């Protein structure tokens, strides 16, 4: 067991190093940031000075070694545009993304579970089919397009909800969050709904499959024999049993939620990590791009590692196969 | 078809259809290369050949299964709308009322007109309005449809080719090579495709060729995994043993027997995958890291009009969005029918 964990950990570290190399050299290829940092009519001397200040005058491999050295100390460089350390900058934008992703998860359960249970209950009727067809749309609709449509309907036409921005924030544990103020929550509804749509279709499918399976079980037959109402059977007995796999899958999907947030945040001008990334790409703010990618890679490696470990603990077959190779 | 066949045989068309479909394939390839290089037959003729070739190929794919494919009204609607959109994309140059990228045809005075307005001198009606530079939205959509479709189809085909090579090779070679290749595949699939694509486009910069490359890199692993699975189960079947028993060389077994049997499930997957690629491409273009401004896809058109939407000038991004929705939905629905028709075992 320990050997497996150690090997898995070594793999993760290897992946991290590989990603560092790929990301650094990838980002290094993007344009010349000096063109953006200083005015076009700067003297050659000023250009040279700026180059030296940011270390651009050195050869690539020296820059890379410096980058690795600093990265090991948790320093991924300073943002050219904001002048702050990149990691700190991203961490300050992170709460906004996380609260959005969290509300998105909650929405996707709130929408997906009832629809899925109903579709499973009426699997062969038109209601069930309609819900399943709808979930195909949820899978295939582009995220930004859904967001735009929601803005058009609820913000421009009906004027029920604000369209873009973050609204009033409340300071909780040193982080500025919108989720705890009524005004901020209003701003979150549309982006969170947009983000939730894809996951909601996933949850719908999971819940439908789970419900269909659960309805054939003996405990449902017993509950029916006791004369319980169908609603009670579905809400109390079936729901309890299908929630565990759904929550597991959603936990795994948190990472991809953060990735999809890039699009949603851009549509709604939500000041999170994703918007920061897109802004940094347009302004060629290399350290921020590198730091964002590295942080995301780390998040994903942690998620994958945790999942693997949990699976290994739960399912001995994985462990045996892992040791055999 | 022999009586002891245990698996569905490779697409068996019969001699006439085999020849016809090969000719259609050659015609499609030839007309495409003539269109891209700009030499040879006039573009209109090449486009007609392209369309006919594609229809023949689709007919060959469904040969003998039309009834099963068209088993409901939604199949007719989806096929008709997909056909319409493909025709619009192929003949965008001929059909659009204006060449939106020819600056001589644009007049900034016609900018941001609502749908149904006419030009200042009344010579042309903008049925879907104009954008901020006086471009006809309808023409922009037709051109954008072409960009979106061709980028996605090119990327999907190339990714499929790479995936097939890697998948079959690793299934055939086995051992260490297989382990290494599949580790790479696993590694790549553990990151969401939008993130990887974004990362690549950040490094490459905008460009049609660049987005195609990025979309290939994002997708190949998915095909490699699928093909490997199919190839592994196929290599265990009798016909491969029979071919081995005949003493055929490896390359003939792989190309002549294994490969044709791994393709049918891929046709279904790749259809749906084209739709996913269109969505991914349009998302990237919407974020401003996709296609260049000079050749906007539907996603970029939507992004361009997005800024005006809050002021109620909805048509600039609304109609390209409807076109995007139509193409994605019809491809998905056709793909769904194809899955039921060609490969009933494969259910998601």
TrEMBL record, chain A:
Residues covered by the ABC transmembrane type-1 domain: 94-311
InterPro entries: BPD_transp_1_N, MetI-like, MetI-like_sf
Localization annotation: Cell membrane
Organism: Marivita lacus
Keywords assigned by UniProt, alphabetized: Cell membrane, Membrane, Transmembrane, Transmembrane helix, Transport
Transmembrane segments: 12-31, 100-121, 133-156, 176-198, 242-269, 289-314
Family to which this protein belongs: Belongs to the binding-protein-dependent transport system permease family.
Main localization, broad class: membrane
UniProt-listed Pfam families: BPD_transp_1, BPD_transp_1_N
Chain coiled-coil ranges: none
CDD domains: TM_PBP2
Membrane topology: Multi-pass membrane protein
Protein name, UniProt field: ABC transporter permease
Automatic annotation (TrEMBL), chain B:
Primary residence: membrane
Subcellular location: Cell membrane
PROSITE patterns: ABC_TM1
Domain ABC transmembrane type-1: start-end pairs: 145-335
Keyword line: Cell membrane, Membrane, Transmembrane, Transmembrane helix, Transport
InterPro entries per UniProt: BP-dependent_transpt_permease (IPR050366), MetI-like (IPR000515), MetI-like_sf (IPR035906)
UniProt membrane topology term: Multi-pass membrane protein
One Pfam family hit: BPD_transp_1
Segments traversing the membrane: 44-62, 74-93, 149-172, 184-205, 286-308, 314-335
PANTHER family: ABC TRANSPORTER PERMEASE PROTEIN, OLIGOPEPTIDE TRANSPORT SYSTEM PERMEASE PROTEIN APPC
Similarity remark: Belongs to the binding-protein-dependent transport system permease family.
Protein name stated in the entry: Peptide ABC transporter permease
């Amino acid at each position: 067991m320990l050997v497996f964990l150690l090997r898995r950990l070594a793999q993760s570290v290897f992946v991290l190093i590989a990603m560092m190399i790929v990301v650094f050299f990838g980002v290094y290829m993007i344009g010349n940031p000096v063109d953006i940092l200083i005015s076009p009519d700067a003297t050659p001397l000023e250009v040279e000075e700026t180059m030296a200040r940011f270390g651009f005058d050195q050869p690539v491999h020296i820059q890379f070694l410096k980058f690795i050295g600093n990265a090991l100390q948790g320093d991924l460089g300073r943002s050219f545009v904001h002048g702050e350390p990149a990691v700190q900058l991203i961490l300050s934008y992170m709460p906004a993304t996380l609260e959005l992703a969290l509300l998105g998860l909650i929405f996707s359960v709130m929408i997906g579970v009832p629809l899925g249970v109903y579709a499973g209950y009426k699997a062969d009727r038109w209601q069930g089919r309609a819900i399943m067809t709808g979930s195909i749309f949820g899978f295939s609709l582009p995220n930004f397009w859904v967001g735009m449509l929601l803005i058009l309907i609820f913000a421009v036409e009906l004027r029920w909800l604000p369209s873009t921005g973050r609204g009033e924030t409340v300071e909780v544990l040193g982080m500025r969050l919108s989720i705890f103020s009524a005004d901020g929550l209003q701003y979150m509804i549309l982006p969170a709904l947009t983000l939730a749509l894809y996951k909601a279709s996933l949850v719908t499918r999971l819940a439908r499959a789970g419900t269909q399976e659960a309805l054939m079980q003996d405990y449902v037959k017993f509950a029916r024999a006791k004369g319980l109402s169908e609603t009670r059977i579905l809400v109390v007995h079936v729901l309890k049993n299908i929630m565990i796999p759904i929550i597991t899958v959603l936990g795994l999907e948190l990472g991809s939620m953060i990735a999809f947030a890039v699009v949603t945040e851009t549509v709604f001008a939500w000041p999170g990590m994703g918007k920061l990334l897109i802004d940094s790409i347009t302004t060629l703010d290399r350290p921020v791009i590198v730091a964002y990618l590295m942080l995301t890679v780390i998040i994903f490696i942690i998620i994958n590692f945790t999942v693997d470990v949990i699976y290994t603990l739960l399912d001995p077959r994985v462990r045996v196969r892992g040791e055999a190779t | 078809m022999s009586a002891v066949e245990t698996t569905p045989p490779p697409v068996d068309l019969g001699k006439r259809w085999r020849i016809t479909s090969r000719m259609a394939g050659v015609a499609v390839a030839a007309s495409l290369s003539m269109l891209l290089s700009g030499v040879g037959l006039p573009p209109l003729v090449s486009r007609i050949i392209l369309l006919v070739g594609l229809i023949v190929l689709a007919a060959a794919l469904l040969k003998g299964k039309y009834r099963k494919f068209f088993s409901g009204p939604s199949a007719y609607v989806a096929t008709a709308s997909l056909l319409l959109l493909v025709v619009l994309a192929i003949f965008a140059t001929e059909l659009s009322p204006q060449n939106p990228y020819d600056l001589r045809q644009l007049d900034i005075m016609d900018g941001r007109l609502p749908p149904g307005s006419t030009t200042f001198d009344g010579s042309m009606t903008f049925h879907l309005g104009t954008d901020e530079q006086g471009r006809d939205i309808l023409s922009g959509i037709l051109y954008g449809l072409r960009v979106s479709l061709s980028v996605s189809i090119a990327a999907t085909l190339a990714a499929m080719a790479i995936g097939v090579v890697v998948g079959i090779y690793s299934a055939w070679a086995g051992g260490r090579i297989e382990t290494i290749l599949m580790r790479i595949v696993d590694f790549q699939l553990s990151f969401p495709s939008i993130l990887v694509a974004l990362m690549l486009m950040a490094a490459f910069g905008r460009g049609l060729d660049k987005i195609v490359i990025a979309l290939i890199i994002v997708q190949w692993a998915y095909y490699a995994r699928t093909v490997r699975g199919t190839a592994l189960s196929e290599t265990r079947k009798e016909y491969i043993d029979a071919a081995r028993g005949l003493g055929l060389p490896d390359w003939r077994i792989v190309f002549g027997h294994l490969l044709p049997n791994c393709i049918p499930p891929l046709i279904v997957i790749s259809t749906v995958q084209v739709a996913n690629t269109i969505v991914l491409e349009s998302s990237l273009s919407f974020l401003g890291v996709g296609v260049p401004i000079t050749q906007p896809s539907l996603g970029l058109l939507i992004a361009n009009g997005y800024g005006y939407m809050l002021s109620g000038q909805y048509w600039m991004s609304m109609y390209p969005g409807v076109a995007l929705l139509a193409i994605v939905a019809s491809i998905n629905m056709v793909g769904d029918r194809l899955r039921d028709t060609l490969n009933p075992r494969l259910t998601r």
